[in-house]
Amino acid sequence: MDGVVKNMYKLGNHSSAFGIAAVDRAYARLQRPPQVMLNTIMTSFGIIAGNGVYPLLVARSARKAGIQRLVAVAFQNETDPKLAELVDEVEWIRVGQLAKMVACFRKRGIGEAVMAGQINPKHLFDLRPDVKALLLLARLKTRNAESIFGAIAGELGKSGVTLLPATTFLEDCLARPGLIAGPKLNRREEEDITYGFGIAKEMSRLDIGQTVIVKKGTVLAVEAFEGTNETIKRGGALGRRDAIMIKVSKPNQDFRFDVPVIGPRTLETARDAQLRAIAVEAGKTLVLEKEAVLERAAAYRISVVGKT
């Protein structure tokens, strides 16, 4: 489940010309990640960087898009130090230091930013929120991914920072429908994907998780707090071999805070678990480091499929 705290860790979203309310309205109408028009005069951009390669890819893609100045807020013991080589300025903070995050962008005149990457769930138990974060949490009637990150977006907005979709600069990485890589599926495997897709959609609606592992019409594992890779390991162990992973988006998912992602590590974990295929929701899932994913899928004979 790329859930509350993991979501806090999946950071990201796109554009400024519309504003948050317009982005939300557009997504409600189109039911896909909002393709927001970037401000054509935007030259500075902020990245709230979790762990993994995601923030690095956002930084590189932003440069290719013409962003001249990149400012990153990075988390101690989480963010890859290599990010510092790709941005102009980086502010290192602890998870929970909301005031420092907001002040970093405000002082540097950053008007748009994305959340990119994850925070290791175990670090949430060591969370030491500052006063600003404590006050924010105290105001919330419910504490889930949407409410917490919506409140964080609100705090950033008060300082003039618009939080954009996590797919910003990475639209070319969204999974396309159909077979993306690996061997062609047989009829039984296609039926398992259709079945698992429905189960995963229901689990995501209940905010339990977004990934399920199935085999021959049986659900072997459902993602919860442990995350996608641990779910793959558990489902693979139960299925022994040739199980199938399905990953979907949540209904009305807010792509500013959370977007389903797979990458080379997903393929490696699937290989170790002897999975047969990985199915993701087309148009709503990022395939990071796509060339590496395609190479591994071919080498491991694991099919990667975009499902609508």
What does this structure look like?
By secondary structure, this protein is α/β, with parallel strands linked by helices. It folds into two domains: 4-163, Rossmann fold (3-Layer(aba) Sandwich); 174-307, Cytidine Deaminase, domain 2 (3-Layer(aba) Sandwich), CATH 3.40.140.80. The chain has helices at residues 4-7, 20-30, 54-64, 98-107, 131-139, 145-158, 187-205, 228-239, 264-272, 290-300; strands at residues 44-49, 69-75, 89-93, 112-116, 162-163, 178-181, 211-215, 218-222, 244-247, 261-262, 277-281, 286-287, 303-307. The strands form three sheets. A six-stranded mixed sheet has the order 6-13-11-9-7-8, sandwiched between helices. It has a five-stranded parallel sheet with strand order 3-2-1-4-5, with helices on both faces. A two-stranded parallel ribbon has the order 10-12. Helix 8 runs parallel beside helix 9 (264-272) and helix 9 (264-272) packs parallel to helix 10. It is globular. Mean pLDDT is 86; it is low at 1-32.
Order of helices and strands: HHEHEEHEHHEEHEEHEEHEEHE
CATH class category of the largest domain: Alpha Beta
Q: Count of DSSP E strands?
A: 13
CATH architecture descriptor of the largest domain: 3-Layer(aba) Sandwich
**For this entry, what is the oligomeric state of its chains?**
single chain
How does the overall form come out from the CA principal axes?
globular
**Fraction of residues in helix:** 25-40%
How much of the polypeptide forms β-strand, as a percent range?
15-25%
Mean of the pLDDT scores? 86
